[in-house]
Design goal:
five-stranded mixed beta sheet; alpha+beta; globular; binds coenzyme A; Aminopeptidase; 21% strand; 151 residues
Length: 151
């Protein structure tokens, strides 16, 4: 374990972390929707319902990693994983995933899914390392309610 890794603490997110978390998502190149799924109010509500699935990695007060989980009473999902550039390749993503998976299992999840863009080769490697398998027979469909509003 590196010296930097030894200092990393894992904790639940607080809504006061929102701006710093959004900054980390943006710096990490995630296509987030601050007008939709990732708005302050959406995150506040999901935090209230399942605080144990909103997890931060911190180095002396600085947010260096984040992951969100969700649970639909059948399956668990992992979303929005991002690690600050200078802190990558030290196992922080693995640590956040292990933590969130354990919380999902406690809630009763019998399967955990995660979506990513096809060209995100690093995420694919990470997910494979963590025991996930690509679902080649699945095509993901989506409908934006924000975009369809007022149609
Ligand atoms: C993907 C990401 C979260 C990985 O975070 P990380 O803390 O560096 O990952 P870890 O150190 O825990 O690595 C775990 C495993 O992932 C794989 N991995 C991570 N980074 C890798 C890289 N640059 N190249 C190849 N494999 C890599 C390896 O298998 C690694 O295990 P190993 O170190 O034992 O070989 C980070 O690169 C990131 O924030 N990327 C930008 C945002 C993003 O794409 N998020 C995912 C959205 S689905």
């Amino acid at each position: 374990m590196t010296d930097q890794m030894k200092k990393i603490t894992i904790r639940r997110m607080d809504i006061s972390d929102y701006e710093e978390v959004v900054k980390l998502w943006r710096e990490s190149g995630l296509k987030i929707e601050t007008e939709g799924t990732d708005s302050y109010n959406s995150i506040r509500k999901s935090l209230e319902i399942m605080p144990q699935l909103h997890i931060i990695a911190e180095d002396k007060g600085l947010i260096v990693g984040v992951i969100l989980g969700s649970y639909d009473y059948r399956k668990g999902y992992l979303h929005r994983l991002a690690i600050k550039k200078e802190y990558r390749r030290q196992g922080i993503a693995k640590k956040l995933m292990n933590y969130t998976e354990a919380e999902l299992i406690k809630l009763g999840a019998s399967r955990i899914d995660s979506l990513m863009f096809k060209d995100n080769s690093i995420s694919k490697k990470l997910l494979k390392k963590m025991g996930y398998e690509p679902a080649y027979n699945v095509t993901y469909f989506t409908k934006s309610i924000v975009r369809h509003k007022g149609r």
